[in-house]
Amino acid sequence: MLRTANCADSMAWIYVKLPCGTLKVKPRSHMRRAERFGELPMLDLGVVIISWWSRKRLLRHAKLHRRLRTDRDHC
User: Checking phi first, is residue 41 left (phi over 0); if not, alpha (psi -120 to 50) or beta?
Assistant: First the structure.
């Protein structure tokens, strides 16, 4: 499934959802930590990057952000 992102809720320009993960195309300036530090496969085309987020990585990322959000709400 190919989906373009709504600017208000996403950092990627294009998502390509596949059964085993998501291929993301986005501007270099919108890279997440995992992309900046080479923790996942990425193709750097200068201004634009293409990154591969496996299903396992997406679940780990969502779980971490849920925990951080919960901790911040309890402070």
Answer: beta
